[in-house]
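Lecture 7, part B: from sequences to assemblies.

Below are the input chains for today's worked example.
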Amino acid sequence: MAKADFYETLGVSKSADEKELKSAFRKMAMKYHPDKNPGDASAEQKFKDVNEAYDTLKDPQKRAAYDRYGHAAFEQGGMGGGFGGGGFQGGGFSDIFEDIFGEMMGGGRQRRSSGGRERGGDLRYNMEISLEEAYAGKTAQIRVPTSITCDVCTGSGAKPGTSPKTCATCQGSGRVRAAQGFFSIERTCPTCHGRGQTISDPCTKCHGHGRVTEERSLSVNIPSGIEDGTRIRLSGEGEAGVRGGPAGDLYIFLSVKPHEFYQRDGADLYCTVPISMTTAALGGTFDVATLDGTKSRVSVPEGTQAGRQFRLKGKGMPVLRSTQVGDLYIQIQIETPQKLTKRQRELLKEFEEISSKDNNPESSGFFARMKEFFEG
Ligand SMILES: [Zn+2]
Ligand SMILES: [Zn+2]
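Predicted structure of the full complex, as structure tokens:
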């Protein structure tokens, strides 16, 4: 079944701004929320679709990719290793969820576990590469500002020699119960903010956060054949977890710059080459530079028509994680001469006078057929 349009899923127009998107998402998510539709599988699916649509459209870069390529923009999954978006959807989902439903759902989802361990945030890095770089692959050095575990207190947040104490208010659970009318509601402990521990003597380097911000240098392997819109996940390279929690992930959002001469369609490349009318009529050759750094000679036979395509086998893009290589298609465009001199004009007129129907079978045939069609 074809996937529904993201805009339709949210019930907004293609020109909807951020605010409209957010409010449409909120409305739809409330309507299809599993808590409101227990056991309703179709509502659950709708809820997932709505989340996916919003997750894509709220991000300007992903939205642009979607506008341009549709769902195909994100069908890069299943590449194994550090690739694919499975983990991201999950992370993105819970973040949006907490953003919007945090207060509404009475404290939102419990992200913290006892002891205040908390998974570090995911980081996103936008990287733009050239088609040549996508062809050859490369190792990119990037600098990522990120918070890492404090080395002085090894992440505990407490001054070396001291240790965090179990919170006296919540006895370490991070939650307190309070009676309100008929109900007893549970909420985050106001003393320790859900950590379950308090620090009386905070570490001086990280001021009790357990993390410090630093810029790290990372080397990222961009494999040959990578496509525009691919996300690369570097597991555990995101922000450090809080108080010994696991680190988040780093996502590289890759875009490939449009090329001056080549258009890409999967592994194949297309290049439109304008040739002169005389080369088209008499035949000739020209050279095209290819991405492998060599040149390929294209022979144009006598009587070549506009739109004719020549295939240069194996001169396209490499296929990711395979030894296959696509082809390069040269599409011929014929340039009609302009700014003729008197002499050129005379020659062309003379040429026309001695031309026969056989020189232009298409155009003479076309008008004859059209006349027959309309006049019977
Ligand atoms: Zn510290
Ligand atoms: Zn507490």
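Note for the exam: The longest strand covers residues 138-149. Keep this in mind when comparing with the next example.
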